[in-house]
Fold:
Amino acid sequence: MIGNYLNEPNKYLYGVLNPVDEEVYAFRLHHAIKEATIFVRDKLITYYPEKDIKVKIYRKENRIVPSKYSGINTAKIFELLKYSNQYLSDQTNFVLNNDDMASMYSKLPYEKIMELVNIINNFLDKNIDNTDWYEVGEFVEEITLPYNEYIKYL
Structure:
């Protein structure tokens, strides 16, 4: 597995390490070493001229599906409905009793709540561009790039 990033670079994510805290700059991983070095270009030129840099390499996993991380589920929908009385009170200038609203929404069957969750999550999946968003896989390797190698990207 070590060294595969040279032969199959599109299967990996890359991040330049900040030499102070040994963490990837801004916790941002990129699709190519070139992109990772360009992302920290100003810091490299200003603070670390002519020094070697370290790059962490991780496996690139599946593309992120927006609905998986949206937090929209039945519990969230029930929570929104529970507090809808505040919204309705603000909009209509009527003071609504929380029990009245709870009883109104409690008549909505669980299957309909699930249908609403699916509609929202399908909407997110269809309308959010996730082209460059991938799950980060296992750590593969940390490499050192000498100045004369990464300067060509800057």
Notes: The two ends are 28 Å apart (CA to CA). The chain is about 45% helix and 20% strand. Residues 58 and 97 are 53 Å apart (CA to CA). The first strand starts at residue 12 and ends at 16.
